[in-house]
UniProtKB/TrEMBL annotation:
Its EC number is 3.4.11.-. GO terms for molecular function: aminopeptidase activity; metallopeptidase activity; zinc ion binding. One of its GO terms (cellular component) is cytoplasm. Keywords: Aminopeptidase, Hydrolase, Metal-binding, Metalloprotease, Protease, Zinc. Belongs to the peptidase M18 family. It comes from Anaerosacchariphilus polymeriproducens. One of its GO terms (biological process) is proteolysis. This is M18 family aminopeptidase. It is an enzyme of class 3 (hydrolase). SUPFAM superfamilies: Aminopeptidase/glucanase lid domain (SSF101821), Zn-dependent exopeptidases (SSF53187).
């Protein structure tokens, strides 16, 4: 298969990106290696033609951009966006539970996870922890990834639930509580009622009393795999939306455009609606773009004029045709694995439909021989939306929703065609180069 480098990079990113915070961390490491410079929102920016920059916002949203060496007026921006988060289980405050000899933790479901796919899988913990500091208004923030399985949510045996294969609804509060220890093994060493908090303190090498709060999630502690008789498919956790993250960062680093400004964004909170300070439903991106143009000597009015000649690619996974559930797809717009990226269209704007903008992307694909397909929902159903329709209300410019088609979207493991990732990376690179 051509360009296996993209596949290897995606699988490595899956292993690194175990929380939204670690997704941004992995992106920053790639940008640093490529010579990008960090910026701070609270300071004045001195930007230069040919410069490469990035901004870390609340550790879970990332903006990176390049300024063409020949940057001039009336060139606009080429923007791509993906999201850093994924459906998972979030650990609640005061998480420790005890039932008989079992140590469990209290969790809540984040996003639209397929709950039964999380059962019987090895689960680990990642996220960030906030610690006491000498400066009250600047507490210490630490990222953590335990990197080994410590939790599991066991299924109930079929002998005790003989109707299980007829379908069962899992209760998010009672059925999804993970087991982390058998207390006979740990009760002598750990505080009787705070097993997880003591474990967390040990992992961070801090006193338990120094932990003020945390944003931690469970993740499936499994690696991604190439599979199939011809190794043409990828099965992995978190393909939604690490496929988009990989394409945005790689395309931005390798883009060769000499004029204008290229911008890549990884938004947090797409899986819960995007309407947060670091989500696509905020003025964050508009504010950043305005500051970029003003730092380059443009007036606010000039910025607005150039903005409307810009283009926005919203990159998220799409729905592939399922051979066992063919009636779930539109009758003339079936997207097949390994047949190219999905260009997603919807008359109700759940995908941002603009035929002129789509025409631009199609011409890029055809010029670079990049395979593509068009996706539409069945007329009697729907299949979700992306950050594109939300972001475009805050940034009213030409927008296109694209992504790789996948199966088992929002499962603990998802399935995609390996060639589609290569096509997506090639498209974003061309978009940033032409």
């Amino acid at each position: 298969m051509e360009n296996l480098k993209s596949i290897d990079e995606l699988l490595e990113l899956v292993e690194q990106s175990t929380s939204a915070f670690h997704t941004v961390k992995a992106g920053i490491e790639q940008l640093n290696e490529a010579g990008f410079e960090p910026l701070d929102l609270t300071t004045e920016w001195g930007l230069n033609r040919g410069g490469k920059y990035y901004l870390n916002y609340h550790d879970s949203t990332l903006v990176a951009f390049t300024i063409g060496e020949q940057f001039d007026y009336n060139e606009g921006c080429r923007i791509t966006a993906a999201h850093s988060d994924f459906p998972c289980l979030k650990i609640k405050p005061n998480p420790d539970l005890r039932k008989e000899k079992y140590a469990q933790i209290n969790v809540e479901v984040y996003g639209g996870a397929i709950l039964n796919t999380w059962l019987d899988r090895p689960l680990s913990v990642a996220g960030r922890v906030v610690l006491k500091s000498d400066d009250i208004f600047h507490p210490i923030v630490r990222l953590i990834d335990v990197k080994r399985p410590i939790f599991v949510i066991p299924n109930l045996a079929i002998h005790l639930n003989k109707e299980i294969n007829k379908g069962i609804e899992l209760n998010k509060q009672t059925d999804m509580l993970p087991i982390g220890a058998i207390l006979e093994e740990v009760e002598k060493e750990w505080n009787q009622y705070q097993y997880f908090m003591n474990f967390l303190a040990r992992e961070l090498h801090v006193n338990k009393e120094d932990i003020l709060d945390f944003e931690l999630n469970l993740y499936v502690a499994e690696q991604g795999d190439l599979l199939g008789m011809d190794e043409s498919m990828i099965s992995a956790p978190r393909l939604d939306n690490l496929t988009g993250v990989h394409a945005v960062i790689t395309g931005l680093i390798e883009g060769e455009r000499k004029a204008g400004i290229n911008v890549g964004v990884l938004f947090d909170h797409e899986e819960i609606g995007s309407k947060t300070k670091q989500g696509a439903g905020s003025i964050f991106l508009y504010t950043i773009l305005e500051k970029i143009f003003c730092s380059l000597g443009r007036t606010r009015l000039r910025f607005q004029e150039e903005l409307f000649d810009s283009l926005f690619l919203s990159i998220d996974v799409g729905h592939a045709f399922h051979p066992n559930q063919e009636k779930k797809n539109d009758i003339t717009n079936k997207n097949i694995l390994n047949q190219g990226i999905s260009i997603k269209e919807s008359s109700v704007q759940s995908y941002v439909t603009d035929s002129e903008a789509i025409g631009i992307i199609q011409q890029i694909c055809e010029a670079k021989e990049i395979p593509y397909q068009k996706f539409a929902n069945r007329s009697d159903g729907s299949s979700g939306s992306t950050l594109g329709s939300i972001a475009s209300t805050m940034l009213p410019i030409k927008t296109v929703d694209i992504g790789v088609p996948i199966l088992a979207m929002h499962s603990a493991r998802e399935l995609m065609g390996a060639k589609d990732q290569i096509a997506l990376v090639n498209l974003v690179k061309a978009y940033y180069s032409l």
